[in-house]
Amino acid sequence: MNTGTRLLAANAIPALALIALVACGGGGSPTSPPPGNAGTGTGSPGPSGAMITIANGRVSPQSVTISVGQSVTFINNDGRGRTVYSNPHPAHTDCPSINAVASISNGQTKLTNSLPTARTCGFHDHDDPDNGLLQGSIIIQ
Length: 141
Ligand SMILES: [Cu+2]
Hints:
Blueprint: H1 2-23, E1 48-55, E2 58-60, E3 63-66, E4 71-76, E5 82-86, E6 102-104, E7 109-111, E8 119-125, E9 136-140
Parallel strand pairs: 1-4, 3-9
Antiparallel strand pairs: 1-2, 4-7, 5-6, 5-8, 8-9
The protein binds copper (II) ion.
């Protein structure tokens, strides 16, 4: 008798899991973010340790140095919207704190989140990812 009951219970679990999966099938699955939005970054901004301006189709300066825990300020004066994300394109996984900038409209100022690790982080314009003028690096030390 016990064996039969156990078999029934074992069969019931996958069936319930399947029902749960189907029930969650609606929009907004966390496993499939929209392109370009992978890794919006966690945490919050730290004190700004450097400033990067986007103007005339390029970022300036292309390399800045900050201390561990600081943020970088991005200013867009390029006359059009830009998108700032961590390398590598399109995964944006190296330094998710940079992804807090994301879309930045003309005239807007945005901060990265606090960069918590001593390393060098590359970034790019997600809508023009191969344009070297819109790429740069943040050295965290
Ligand atoms: Cu990208």
